[in-house]
Amino acid sequence: MGASRHDEAMTPGLALSDLPIPRHSGAETIAVPADRGTGHWVGAASVLVRDGAHYLAYRTRRPVDDGRGSDVIVARVRSDGSLGELCRIDKASMDAESLERPALVVDGAGGWRLYLSCATAGTRHWRVEMLEAPAPDAFKTAGRRVVMPGDAHVGVKDPVIICDERGWRAWICCHPLDDPNATDRMWTEFATSRDGIAWTMRGPASRSGVRTTSRPPATHRLRRRRDRTRRCAMQRSSRMVIAPPCTTRPAARTAATNFVGSGSRSRGQDPVAVTENEVVAFDEDLAGRIRELVGGEKALTEKRMFGGLAFLIGGNMAISASGQGGLLVRVDPGKSDKLAAGPHVEVAIMRGREMPGWLRVDADGVKTKPQLQRWVDEGVAYARSLPGKPSGSQ
Predict the structure, then answer these.
(1) Are 236 and 61 in contact (CB under 8 A)?
(2) What percent of the chain shows pLDDT beyond 90?
């Protein structure tokens, strides 16, 4: 959840420690693309719970040269965990070149709204249109209206929208149009509304040097997971899975975090990194305990990266207080499976695939000093074995 000057308007009294953390263990596939070829996937879902039932709105994606976002599907999760399609909106009916992430919302009167991110044909511009219906299976495009138009300078899309007793709030992905070849320079704008139709922009909720996108303050996060049966270098078939929350939660003391999207890229075998100037979430108490154990190491530095606070030896990461709770530890890849066989430990999964040499250790596995010392020793030993990096490099 992003921390900004709008935090109080977003989540009064809510801390990251109140949110369950999705894990790969126990995840179930709930949707797959109709075509399993390269560049086909489903995802970018908006999820809500109404009268005990779970509803999703998600997009289907085709290759860039075959139309990109073709449909948005509204579905309900059946009692057996499968998805039942309720309605489908195609891009032609919205006069859109492509459809991206939708937002499914129930208004204060119990009516249903579907906000659709529409690419304006022949341009790099995006706009958000809204459909209204008395039920989630009754959306029609005949009464659609543009509610977030953007303008000649900025395109808008992928909104995360909340309607509750405090009114309407939205986090909107914006991108400038001054350079048609650089429209991935995005930021998240915070907006409010009295009716969910006319919106007032209140300023950036996050902005950084990498591509950013909206993230929902949801208690269950739907993840897009790469299909492991295909190993294409760029676009691959993808399926949508729902991950159960972790039973352990990070400690209450956390630092702030930005809305950081998929624009960050891995370097070598490193997981997706967060740039140095971004604020990330981690358990400060756990970081302090690590600091006490590694304080005597030579060439020790601390760096905010990988969604937490990392401790580096000679420029190589040894161990990190993870933003997901617990530890992220770098170890000898040849020892990964053996170390992960113990309780509270698993090989880290980055972008849908296991990363040998990177382990996640749950908070329950580092409650005592000896438990933590073991993982500090593993991480430090491996970091020492690597060639040192020049000052300032990662």
Answers:
(1) no
(2) 40
Same domain flag for 100 and 203: yes
Q: Do 57 and 178 belong together in one domain?
A: yes
Please check whether residues 179 and 95 belong to one and the same domain. Answer: yes
Q: What is the largest CA-CA distance in the chain?
A: 68
- The domain of 290 spans 284-385
**Which DSSP state fits 33?**
-
Contacts within 8 Å (CB) and 24+ apart, 173-180: 173/212, 173/213, 173/214, 174/150, 175/126, 177/123, 177/124, 177/125, 177/152, 177/153, 178/153, 180/124
Domain end, chosen from 242, 265, 300, is at: 242
Say what the pTM is.
0.54
- Where do we find the tokens 């509610």? 147
Report DSSP letters for 158-178, one per residue: EEEEEEETTEEEEEEEEEE-S
Residue 93 carries which side chain, given as an amino acid letter? S
Q: Identify the CA nearest to 352 among candidates 266, 245, 223.
A: 223
pLDDT grade for 13, boundaries at 50, 70 and 90: low
pLDDT of 341-365, one tens digit each?
989 999 887 655 778 899 999 988 9
| Sequence-separated (6 or more) residues with CB below 8 Å from residue 203 | 5, 6, 189, 190
Residue 273's nearest CA partner among 358, 216, 391 is: 358
CA 210, 3, 292, 20 dihedral sign is negative
In contact, 302 and 311? CB cutoff 8 Å = yes
Residue count of the chain, please give it.
394
Same domain, 49 and 162: yes
Q: Residue 278 falls within a domain, yes or no?
A: no
Count of CA atoms in the C-beta half-sphere (13 A) of 346 = 15
Nearest-angstrom CA–CA distance, 361 and 293 = 17
Q: How many domains does the chain have?
A: 2
Tell me whether residue 271 is in a domain: no
**CA atoms 213, 128, 142, 133: torsion sign:** positive
Contact call for residues 394 and 383 (beta carbons, < 8 A)? no
- Cβ contacts of residue 328 below 8 Å, gap of 6+? 271, 306, 308, 310, 319, 320, 322, 348, 358, 359, 360, 361
Does the residue 257 lie in any domain? Answer: no
Does 170 fall in a domain?
A: yes
Tokens 């409650």 found at: 367
Domain shared by 45 and 161, yes or no: yes
